Amino acid sequence: MKPYQRTSSLKKVYRRLPSSRTGVLLRKKRPSVAKCAICKKPLRGSVGSKQRMYGGFVCHKCLQSLIKLSMRGIS
């Protein structure tokens, strides 16, 4: 492999070439599903980031508990 091909950010896909050999194609990895930073469940809703605090980072249930704890003065 060439030096620029030695990276973990590209996915190796093995394909048969016209010369009947098997070659390696490098493709970009598909992004994984966004997960909540606290409970690790997949985030629901649209793909775009939410315009509320911790939007796209914490799910709505964990955010609700965080807000309750902060308003009660418990850190």
Automatic annotation (TrEMBL):
GO BP term (any one): translation
Keyword Ribonucleoprotein carried by entry: yes
Gene Ontology cellular-component terms listed: ribonucleoprotein complex; ribosome
Keyword check for Ribonucleoprotein: yes
Keywords: Ribonucleoprotein, Ribosomal protein
Molecular-function GO terms, alphabetical: structural constituent of ribosome
Domain of life from the UniProt record: Archaea
InterPro entries in the record: ARFGAP/RecO, Ribosomal_eL34, Ribosomal_L34e_arc-type
Pfam families for the chain: Ribosomal_L34e
Alphabetical list of HAMAP family matching this protein: Ribosomal_eL34 (MF_00349)
Family according to the record: Belongs to the eukaryotic ribosomal protein eL34 family.
Name of the protein in its database record: Large ribosomal subunit protein eL34
